[in-house]
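User: Show me an example of a complex going from sequences to structure tokens.

Assistant: Sure. Here are the input components:
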Amino acid sequence: MPQRLDLDDGSLVLIIGSGAGGGTLGNELAQKGIRTLILEAGPRIEREQHIDDERQSFAQLAWLDKRTTSGSWRIAKDYPNYPANVCKVVGGTTVHWGGCSLRVQDHELRAKDVYGDIAGTNFFNWPLTLAELEPYYDKAEDKMGVTGTHGIPLLDADNNQIVMAAGAKKVGYKECSTGNMAILSRPRDGRPATIQDGFCFQGIRSNAKWSTLNAEVPKGEATGNLEVRSQCHVLRIEHDKSGKVTGVVYADKQGDHHRQRARIVCIAGNSIETPRLLLNSASSLYPDGLANSSGQVGKNYMRHMSGAVWAVFEKPVRMFRGNTMAGCIKDERFHRPDREFVGGYYMQTLHLGLSSFASRLAINLDFAGWGPEYARTMEAYEYMAGMWLVGEDMPRETNRVTLHPTEKDQFGMPIPNVHFDDHENDIAMRNHAYKRGAMVYDAVGATRIIRTPPGPSAHNLGTCRLSHRAKDGVCNKWGQTHDIGNLFISDGSQFTTSTAENPTLTIVALAIRQADYIADQMTKNF
Amino acid sequence: MSIYRIIFPHGAVADEFYDHVVRKLDEQAVRDENFLGFLSNGVEVLSRQTASAWSALSPEARLRALRSAEETPFFQRLRSDFILYFYSNPAIWPLFGYEGPSNDKGGYLHRGFNDVDWIKKEEV
């Protein structure tokens, strides 16, 4: 472990959060010889301590600080105080992610031009192109060990995928495989190949899955340039009279406050905490919060169209044998003007253990979450296959993260409220995806289909969007805030639009790219 | 217990696994008087709404009574606690064909991760 960096050291780069964005950025900067400090709100729980039990793991990893919700989305009723399923540990949500690593599509970065005007949305083109991102995708895939890239073979299909792939073929889909996964199929870079032990949502006991906990953080620390200080919850960011940020105030695990100085501050707290921190840092110079001259901080919260389809078969499937997610149908990802919605989606295999599945089934669209039909369906668990649906959702200014007017957290800071209304495009896409998912399973003899609605969001996006013009968004094409030159956004909050793809690979690619930019700027500016 | 047998009717599952959930509720009721009151009041309201005593009702009548109480906080709490404690109990997993964690056994790599035999290889 490197020596603890000094609280008064105003020459370092300070990153808030150690997930896909913050953890990657920290390692990249450290590799360049830049002294970097990551403040992580959660504890450091090494992979040997991860628990392959859904309930216990949830208590160990989840971000359980209270949040409130509003809006017409089901979450406000089903999970009013738990809108997002993210982690509060070193490694952030990469500790419990599924591993699906897809590049965005060119048209998605130009969505405003391609989709045209859609009432009730706030689309912009991204201020960068796929060609600009591609070299960084390449580095990200290499770093993460993504199957189907860099000569890494695809994973072998598990039971859940064998069933989905057979159905996909029967209905005429052409692009179905175990997909591009940051779960190793062969030993590489000090990590072993998967032993198909699942519990990907519960951590990385087997070490086959990439996360910042088992890859970026230890690699950065090995340089001697990175310190990761855990259980340090940042309360506000401070600035000088000129408006430049100078550091942060954080609470340690005893609740004691400390002031950490820094030359540059990068926020990567996930798309709810990142805008919350900017808003909670309001001052007389920035009365609406930091980097918020556009009024856009917290707006355009996106969470992907999602849902799940479960199918019962006459013979056993045993979907739980194998990785949590390792199957992908890509055929519906395109934007097709002949459909009744814009954008596209993917179907990806998903299994849950009996305990999580019971909770998920309790909120389903086809029958009561209790009683004879519920019990009969639970008894068919061994005979089930499952898929998750994930697609592009709409940026809307009214879907937003705000500070709760009265409720405060354990440190006395206002908690976040997350407001979300489904757009009719989300509903049309979800209905389409439910039908196509059912067709896939019907084609291989499903006896029953059960649909479950979106649960707490794993993909939290937008809220500090990249934009060409300062008045439209919060940061420029490098994630540097338009208002404050030494303040950066380094997580999925940057996403101008959600795109249909699982976001981690893009967050990692943007972080690698941002590290290059910061290193370059440090020689010239700030 | 008789309520749970109606809400979650797993005919082949022995009483002891239902008892496991009831014991969890009891433990909490002992610790928390408010919760005890909440439970007793819920049971009392439920009994008042049926024409005859709960023990005299047919299974169908019990199901109807519970349906009419579906939206009450009492019912919702009974339901969510059952789901929390019943299905997360590793002792019942074999009854549902769930084999649970495998990391310590070398994963499912050599224990059937791809053993679905009713789909032919050429179909995939």
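The lines above are the inputs; the final block is the predicted structure for all two components together. DSSP finds five helices and no strands in chain B.
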